[in-house]
Write a structure and sequence with these properties.
The chain is mainly beta. Helices cover 8% and strands 48% of the residues.
Length: 793
């Protein structure tokens, strides 16, 4: 979907504090080491970006939309080996909370851009659409109701840089690109490679982690190459749960911490292979990836009183902690051919991706089986697939202006499949496995759809000072109809040091198959109690009985206005204001605590639940905000060189309209969209995020200090008495690195000041267990240490 062939490019974060990396032209060699590359800020502004444009010569300074570029060196300088965590340390517009006690969301955690839903950000790898995870986030965390891409399935060892387009781009890339686009660009070329290892743990002594990664380039014939990158990492769980005070008088474990609240145990192995080969005057290319993650997370502790009441005390005489043992397998393959014919650049590609998520429940019981119950169950699984056939062409048109215009055309056929597999009968029958009842046969099924899209774009340098571009996309879905998206962009140079840029666009996001067909019954925390809650597809009889309507596509309108100011050769600043209106926003309804009449009505259908929810288009929202990025590079002569960055995002989400409440819910005093749901869409993520960083390079040594301020946020409950506003928090990070020849060693401390979020109110803590909220934008692990060692050649 991006223009080819790529030309030599050097990229860096807009306003980044670290030196950029060089991206070779296809078939050329890659740089040997990030530490050998230096640049001034003025040079950075001339570096080429490829996300959000069809041109192959668009520099960062000429970009009509805000683009951040995070280099591999910056990712490695973070204290994490998880891609989403590393990006959150560099991007003020990205929010990556760490939910816990949220079932599958513990294993596949969603990231947000500009405070919007995680599935409203499109993810690309080398310009090709990445498939989404099969997991639907259905519990009480940010991103509830979304099924986004699993960013952490992508090994950082394979990445050359990450380009983040902070602008609507549905007209250019299709559905999901409402909040923006994350384009992961892989390392290329035959030369260079390396191995790296990392060890770390928290200050509390838990959460020990280790990783080992390697990447290697191999020459194929004349100008061809193949790159391999592999990574394995393991992390032990952390625990910040409080003492469980439920049934304290009769519990044998009185005064002990029984539950887990924190990161799960996790082991991941990942591999990416990408390459290129000249074939009959064209270039054949491929990207293949595979990752597998095993995660062991906890549900809520079942007390001895619970075990006795359900006749499983002989299995668990002191109570028990159900464990959710999941395996996520992620695979993709891109095969393509690109070249030039007459005056046209062309690119044909086939892209297939798949994610399978299998769930087992261990250390548990099916109460209906009493002492004879197994203690481990196969709970079934989920699968999501995507296949695309894509054709792109572009050419330059000499229209007599200052430079040729670029005209692009394309067409795409996409097929999607989503499937649910039932668990073993004992995992779901008569209440099912405690902790996570298995998927039932009535939940199971396979669903598919396809869509066809055509799109076109035109970009031109109209005068020496004015550039403009336009993009139009038409899509036709087999299940919900047609959608159209348009985008207009421009940039004007006011003075040699000042330019103005802006965009207006429309966009859309089709309801995913997961949002249309996901169904399960699970144990949820609702109003402080654990209850069996059903998630119903909108077309099901259960959802229809609760007033569900067919889903529609989300539609968006977006405008942005920005300034680019270069005060001096080594100091540049960008400021971008934006507004995003989204109609018919898709979200999961409130947890509907069913009165007896509705409960009996569902029971007659064989649905035995105390609460229910379904997906709905019941909300229109408005997002307004600003992004500020300013960077300064200072040469201190014999004392070395310093890089200083200030980056800030302020974001406000508001409600423009709430759809009428279904009559059946009104009759039963229920709200489809309650105050908890409204808060999650508006005020439950920080309204601001400030990043300050300083890095000093002196010979072989470099020292980095960073401060991040997360703004306040509010989490609401069904009763306003239990609402809680969490205060703003400062986190300090520090690292020191030494590079000599091919070797690099690094020691770092994240959250140096050991900052934890505010503790939750006692009324919301479920007997003292939930000390911290899963909405915390920086988790609740406290201070963390990491040591890294790398060898590059």
């Amino acid at each position: 979907m991006l223009p080819t062939p790529f030309k030599p490019a050097v990229l860096t974060l807009a306003g980044a504090a670290l030196a950029p990396l060089a991206l070779p032209a296809l078939g050329q060699t890659s740089p040997t080491s990030p530490s050998t590359t230096t640049s001034t800020t003025s040079t950075q502004l001339q570096q080429v970006v490829v996300t959000g444009t069809r041109r192959t010569d668009r520099s960062l300074a000429q970009s009509e939309s805000p683009v951040d570029v995070i280099s591999a060196a910056q990712l490695q300088r973070s204290g994490s080996t998880e891609l989403a965590t590393a990006l959150a340390q560099w991007l003020p517009s990205l929010n990556f909370p760490r939910p816990s006690l949220t079932d599958a969301s513990d294993a596949v955690r969603p990231a947000q851009l500009r405070g919007l839903s995680p599935d409203q950000t499109l993810v690309l790898i080398d310009g090709k659409r990445r498939h989404s995870s099969a997991v639907v986030n259905i519990n009480g965390s940010q991103g509830r109701g979304s099924a986004p891409v699993d960013l952490n399935a992508i090994p950082m060892a394979a990445i050359e840089r990450v380009e983040v387009l902070r602008d609507g781009a549905a007209a250019q890339y299709g559905s999901d690109a409402i909040a923006g686009v994350i384009n992961i660009v892989l390392k290329k070329g035959a030369a260079g490679g390396g191995v790296a290892g990392e060890l770390g743990q928290t200050d509390a002594g838990d959460g020990g982690r280790a990783s080992l990664a390697a990447d290697l380039g191999i020459a194929l014939g004349t100008g061809g190459w193949l790159r391999l990158a592999a990574e394995t990492r393991h992390q032990q769980h952390t625990n910040r749960a409080g003492v469980d005070t439920r049934d304290a008088a009769t519990e044998p474990r009185k005064g002990l911490v029984n539950n887990r609240l924190g990161d799960p145990d996790s082991t991941q192995r990942a591999l990416i292979v990408n390459g290129q080969l000249d074939v009959a005057g064209a270039q054949a290319y491929t990207v293949a990836s595979y990752s597998e993650r095993n995660t062991l997370s906890a549900a809520f502790w079942r007390t001895r009183a619970t075990a006795v009441a359900n006749n499983v005390d002989s299995l668990y005489p002191e109570g028990f902690l159900p464990l959710e043992d999941s395996r996520s397998r992620d695979a993709s393959l891109v095969l393509g051919l690109r070249g030039q014919a007459l005056d046209w650049q062309w690119d044909l590609s086939l892209n297939h991706g798949r994610n399978d998520f299998d769930m087992a429940v261990a250390n548990t019981a099916n109460y209906s089986l009493g002492a004879a119950s197994p203690t481990r169950f196969d709970a079934g699984g989920l699968s999501n697939q995507q296949t695309l056939l894509n054709a792109d062409v572009s050419r330059e048109i000499d229209w007599g202006g200052i430079s040729p215009a670029v005209w692009s055309l394309g067409a795409e056929l996409r097929q999607e499949r989503y499937a649910i597999t039932a668990g073993e009968p004992d995992s779901y029958s008569n209440g099912g496995a405690s902790g996570f009842p298995g998927f039932q046969p009535s939940n199971a099924g396979s669903h598919r759809r396809h869509n066809v899209s055509i799109y076109s774009g035109l970009e031109s340098q109209l005068t020496r000072d004015l550039s403009a571009s336009a993009a139009l996309r038409l899509e036709d879905y087999s299940d919900f109809g047609r959608a159209t998206a348009l985008k207009l962009s421009g940039r004007y140079v006011v003075a040699s040091s000042l330019s103005v840029r802006g965009t207006v666009s429309s966009g859309f996001r089709a309801p995913s198959l997961a949002q249309q067909y996901f169904a399960t019954t699970s144990t949820n925390l609702i109003n402080g109690a654990l209850v069996e809650a059903g998630t119903f597809p909108v077309a099901s009889a259960a959802a229809q009985a609760l007033g569900a309507k067919p889903l529609k596509a989300e539609k968006s309108r977006q405008a942005s206005l920005g300034l680019q100011w270069q005060a001096s050769r080594d100091w540049q600043t960008t400021l971008d204001l934006y507004q995003i209106d989204i109609d018919d926003r898709i979200l999961l309804s409130a947890n509907l605590s069913l009165p007896t009449a509705l409960r009996n009505q569902l029971a007659a259908q064989g649905v035995l639940v105390s609460a229910g929810r379904y997906f709905t288009n019941a909300l229109d929202t408005r997002t307004r905000g600003l992004d500020l990025v300013s960077s300064l590079r200072q040469d201190w002569g014999a004392c070395g060189r310093g890089d200083y960055t200030l980056a800030f995002n302020h974001n406000k989400n508001s409600i423009r309209q709430v759809a009428d409440n279904p009559a059946v819910l009104t009759e039963n005093s229920l709200l489809l969209i309650d105050r908890v749901t409204l808060a999650r869409a508006t005020i439950s993520s920080p309204s601001s995020k400030l990043l300050l960083s300083a890095q000093h390079q002196w010979g072989a040594w470099s020292l980095r200090l960073a401060a991040t301020r997360y703004g306040s946020y509010e989490v609401r409950q069904s009763s306003a008495v239990n609402d809680q506003r969490f205060s703003a928090a400062w986190l300090l990070d520090a690292s020191v690195a030494w590079s000599q020849g091919p070797w690099t060693a690094q020691l770092g401390v994240d959250n140096l000041n050991n900052r934890y979020p505010d503790e939750v109110l006692a009324a919301n803590s479920v007997g003292g267990i939930l000390r911290y909220s899963s909405f915390s934008p920086f988790g609740f692990n406290g201070r963390q240490y990491a040591a890294k060692l790398a060898y590059r050649w």
